[in-house]
Amino acid sequence: MTEHTPNDPHAHGAGCDHGTPADPTGIRARIAALAGNTADSADQTWEGRTFQAHDNAYAEDDGSAPAELAEAQRRFAAGEGSAEAVIDAFRSARLLIPLVAHAGDIGVNAHGQEIDKTQELSIITVEGPDGRNVLPVFSSVAAMQTWNPKARPVPADGIRVALAAAEENTDLVVLDATTPLEFVIRRPALWAIAREEAWIPSFHDPEVFAAFVASIGTELSVLDVALSTGDPLSRLHGPELVVTLTLMQGLDRTMLDAVLQRLAQRWAQDDVIATRADSLTVRLRSSE
Q: Where is the composition biased (Basic and acidic residues) (predicted)?
């Protein structure tokens, strides 16, 4: 078998980022509604708070990484554990959302110079390699201080983090950025966390696979479809999903383009694919 990627990745759907898909089941609406409350489970606002000043739920917490989450991250980074295990540990773990100070009201001093009369703390997002916003969170004070020593930690569990991401209009969360255990949580997993539902990676999800199989049913020139991960380290090194199509020999460029355009349209309109796959790229194989 020979393998190649299309010469025009945009025409063929390679590297396709679904962005935020249509939400026929109300997932996004539910998350956004919950995210409107920026308080924690005790109804205490995040703004202006520090880890040390938090409620009694974390009064005895020394700021070290939760053991179950740290072990799941370590095993995943070593190739011994699964992304699902990291997500499951993330759900209930005590996490730290960094708040960063920025200028509030601006005033003028006696010398006519502008000064910051107040400073405000806010959740921040950073730009990921694919151009989307990413919300950084951390498992420990040490990891957060390595990333930004001026950030102030606010503890929250994984569900709250997923809701905070929705409120910040971001579909990506990076856990322990810049550390050896860095792990990116994409939109489908965040939605599952927020709704307290099980999550299966798109490349292991039988319903996602069935949707792709159905999409090629009327394409006689497409002999097979296979799914695999495009980001095995979960660090945004590539799209989440790789769709490999096995094609019959003898297709010219015009025929190939037409097939791939039809498939791209079907995938974009399929609720299962749009909701459960964060992003995808297409690889082509020709049959022997």
A: 1-11
31 part of a folded domain: no
Tokens 């255990």 locate to 181
Averaged pLDDT, groups of 10, the chain, 288 residues long: 36 47 48 45 44 62 94 98 98 95 62 58 87 96 94 94 88 96 98 95 98 98 98 97 97 96 97 97 91
Given 151, 168, 194, which residue is the final one in a domain?
194
Residues 155 and 209 grouped into a single domain: no
Considering the domain architecture, whether residues 210 and 255 belong to the same structural domain is answered as yes
Number of domains in the chain: 2
Q: Are residues 120 and 246 in the same domain?
A: no
